[in-house]
Amino acid sequence: MAEPETPAPARRGIGRRGFLGYAGSAVAGAAAGAAGGAAWGGTAEDPAPARVGLGAEVTPYGAHQAGVTAPTPTVVEVVALDLLETVDRDALGRLFRVWTGDIEALATGRPTPGDTEPWLAAARADVTVTVGLGPGALAAARVDPPVGFEQVPPMRHDRLEDRWSGGDLVLVVGARDGTTVAHAVRQLVRDAAPFARQRWRQAGFWNGVDADGRRVTGRNLFGQVDGTANPVPGTDAFDQAVWVVGPPWAGGTTLVVRRIAMDLDTWATLTRDKQEQAVGRRLDDGERLAEPRPDAHARLALPMENAGARIFRKGVSYANAEDSGLVFMSYQASVAGQFVPIQRSLDRADALNTWTTAIGSAVFAVLPGFERGDWLGSGILG
Ligand code: HEM
After folding, report:
1. What integer pLDDT is reported at residue 53 of this predicted model?
2. Does 278 map to a domain?
3. CB of 346 sitting under 6 A from ligand 1
4. Is 323 annotated as catalytic?
């Protein structure tokens, strides 16, 4: 479809280039036409917002896996796999060499070896693939986990289901669109077939970009600005909270995945004041309330309430016929030292517990990054 023939009055003055720069595609232009052009409020003086809808290539190389610090992708799939019984340390090393090649290809928009749908390899799609080992893979490879690596202990409010819990390996695959993510997952899971079978797969989405294409802290399905108090990548606070120190895991981290169902229907019956009190933050801008109640979520989760513990939260929302919620994910150097104390405080008293229920739980040791010519996990399995 082409863009509308007659420019709508609201966008008169924007040159063709500016218009296309903003819309990014003829499809978007057609959509604007269908809406009568009412949404086009720009003037000739407006600076053209940069690269709306376009992604980038995220280098897969470095001391850390790129997906940990990259902004939360628009579309994410988290896939847990179980190892076949015969898989030992050497076999795991072979799998990771294969995955390394796949990740290098996917990150640069090239088809992976043996890709039967190479047309789906998308360039500049913000593809990241983060790989971690669960307790079963660490045992199979006879590898000591990072210090403080443990299962999240049972919590009073948990209603865990097997179908969303556990796993020997994890892939967190993110990109700017669902086709690219689904295709990448398919390649990675197919290449793992001689070694591992898919156990569960959770799809999520996040809107971390505003109407002008600027990065913003996104909102969860309760409507809350979620992620404000996160440590910022590149700072000392982030490095201390997230990266494991000391070989062989130096540069790695740990990942906790919790599938948390959110009762959107009962939440929606609360007044705005009650909603803000439950989390201790304002709904419009996510600012802290001056006087939060003692059991407000964001108050109980504060480092000062948890012996200084900080985590880097990077969840994505999910919504389907059964329920809606958050595929909560957090990265931290130590599960026992950081995640568990915060989770215990929240389980004890969090006001949000009325509307949130963990229905899945899994922990993974996330491998350090790799350099060109090297392979993911070489320092641990090599
Ligand atoms: C569906 C479940 C959850 C929802 C809807 C939720 C929502 C929020 C919101 C809106 C904030 C305030 C804004 C921000 O700083 O991001 C927040 C903060 C926070 N949440 Fe959650 N959260 C959930 C689960 C969890 C879990 C399971 C944990 C960890 C065990 C957690 C740990 C934290 C931490 C550490 C903060 C920052 C506290 C601070 O330093 O100010 N949250 N959460």
Report:
1. 54
2. yes
3. yes
4. no
